[in-house]
């Protein structure tokens, strides 16, 4: 499988070919990916035939579009029967891909479909990068109705906790930044608050963005939603976020999934405002996407606007994440649920 081999070792998979040929293939894979090897016009037909089944480390099981072709969601299936989900969103000036870093997730957050279905396995670096390359090929082929013709931004907000899969996630970052040429500043790693991972990421040479999923401003509530909070309580998560900001000079963002009557009260908004002020963080509110195994409901519009008003009144910038692709369940872990696997 071509993407499962580090680009530096490609010669081993394409044995017997001259060095310049390996270089050409590397360019096709990482500089201008294509959906099929047929488009590799400078590569002889016999070699293309040999590599045909080795291009993608997965098959496309489901491809769904929404928002008049500006949102596309894929469910990829690996040979060992693991599902990988990615969502592509085209905006006027950017194209953002949401990637998965694990098949399933072991963190067990109560409100998250991925967490409810447990953990299958870590994704390999090549499986993470192949999601980006596939989307890049799709966009280059004119598949997306909105935005520039390249994937400009990557967010680790699909299935899995990226910092719990550190070495592979790190290698995928290296490939995206140093081999594919995606700007580190356009990549955001989202974490549920995996403190050791946040510290390691702060020491990496890249200016990637960090989003911290807080969802609650006190430990009792947070532990009831996020089991990992027992291991890394709020104060430690905040300290690691502050360290990230100090080392990178990049503000972190705080994610807050709004659940009716759970974490949308003004006392929580007050607590969040204090944390956000200390971290100089931007707040991203997300209305809960209901999941089959939880009774939680999204906050009402009124609760969300009062919550935002309080934050803004305290000088905190907050945005409500747009609900892209709702009709195709283009949210964390949702497609997997519908596919029933
Ligand atoms: N594991 C990482 C990244 C993947 S989840 C993390 O938790 O940050 C990406 C984002 O989707 C997180 O902010 C998560 O809290 C949010 N999310 C999970 N389930 C959701 C749901 N049912 N509705 C809305 N947002 C959800
Ligand atoms: Fe895992 Fe993130 Fe879902 Fe929690 S919210 S279960 S960490 S994917």
Structure description:
This protein has 341 residues and is of the alpha/beta class. 35% of the residues lie in helices and 18% in strands. The protein has twelve helices and twelve strands. The chain has helices at residues 10-13, 19-31, 45-51, 113-116, 125-140, 166-179, 195-202, 219-225, 234-248, 266-279, 301-313, 334-339; strands spanning 59-66, 71-77, 83-90, 95-98, 102-104, 119-122, 153-156, 187-191, 209-213, 253-258, 282-287, 318-320. The strands form two sheets. Strands 1-2-3-4-7-8-9-10-11-12 form a ten-stranded mixed β-sheet, covered by helices on one side. Strands 5-6 form a two-stranded antiparallel sheet. Strand 7, helix 6 (166-179) and strand 8 (187-191) form a beta-alpha-beta unit. The two termini are 24 Å apart. The model has no long low-confidence stretch (mean pLDDT 94). The structure holds S-adenosyl-L-homocysteine (SAH) and iron/sulfur cluster. Iron/sulfur cluster is lined by residues 105, 107-109, 112, 114-115, 160-161, 192, 332. S-adenosyl-L-homocysteine binds at residues 111-113, 156-157, 161, 190-192, 213, 255, 257, 286, 288-289, 291, 331-332.
In summary, what is this structure?
This protein is α/β, with parallel strands linked by helices. Helix content is 35%, strand content 18%.
Q: Rounded to an integer, what's the Rg over CA atoms?
A: 20 Å
Small molecules bound in the structure, each named once = S-adenosyl-L-homocysteine, iron/sulfur cluster
First and last CA, distance: 24 Å
Mean pLDDT across all amino acids = 94
Task: Please provide the ordered H/E string of secondary-structure elements.
Answer: HHHEEEEEHEHEHEHEHHEHEHEH
Secondary structural class? alpha/beta
